[in-house]
Amino acid sequence: MNGDTPNYPQPNFEKGAITMNIVEKHEALSTEPLITDRPLFLWVEQNYRKLLRKPLLQEEVLDKVVTQAISDENLIGILLFGSLASGTHTWKSDIDLIFIYQSCEPSSGVANLIVDGVMVQYFFTSFETLLENLENVPYLLHIFCDAKILFDRQGTFTPVVNQIEFYFSAHPEIQDEWTRIKNLHQAEKKGPACAQTTILQRWDELEEKYSGGTRKRTFFRDFPTDHSQS
Question: Which helix (H) or strand (E) holds 77?
Fold first, then answer.
């Protein structure tokens, strides 16, 4: 190895899932190992790390992604959710992130990167879009209650998360809905992937129930469902 960064091909992003001006902010991080060997690659790498008593690969990849992302002055917040946030991750876990931008086009979306063999899935939204949906469909934002704030550029994002947490504490019936949804999700993960319900479908169900059948959300409305399962 000469220390140079290999010129790996970039991952493919499905049309409509994300536009290039956002992709370009993160594509420098993305490397693509042999996808067919990814589980074996991760198993070998993670067990080697275990023998050396080193952190799992996901922790190093997370640090790399966050360090690169915060160099963008337009980025105002990063949250971590999923198994890595809860401490239940394993050698094969993905990294799940939420990026909050001051402004972005499109105003929300989902994308995947592969960094050092680890899948990184991130949701992104503009701050304005988040505030708009906090006002109109706060019952859809439970993901923020389970997330850890990794970065808040000006301290303006943390109060919004606090508002979301307060909403759910004041509405235990909706908190119970999300507990049911998470239990169903865990049960579905034990079965075939094709049988799993996506987060978009869950949001649609909740809007049917709490918005009188009217779709009020303005984020993550029309993205491919295979990019939306966290």
Answer: strand 75-81
